[in-house]
Amino acid sequence: MLTGKQKRFLRSQAHHLQPIFQIGKGGVNVAMNTQIAEALEKRELIKVSLLQNTDEVADEAALEIAQATNSEVVQVIGRVIVLYKASSKEKYQRLTQQLKLL
To answer: What residue stretch is flagged as signal peptide (predicted)?
Structure first.
């Protein structure tokens, strides 16, 4: 579980990121969750955007993805979801190392 201070740090890091996944009319599915999990393993922090044509609600989609990928929702702002998961590989743990210092 992330502390408030850690979430603030992650939000500041995510500010400059572009969404790398888009949820469209297909909604959240298993294949997408698998791809998101792989991206989180390498990047630790990603943004997912909901397109206009989706029936998904941002908060619900965020929780669904977080549960499926075992990640944490850092922020949901409008139609953009910010997710964080510590990488299991040390070479990708850039953010995890900084979070431990907070």
So the answer is: none
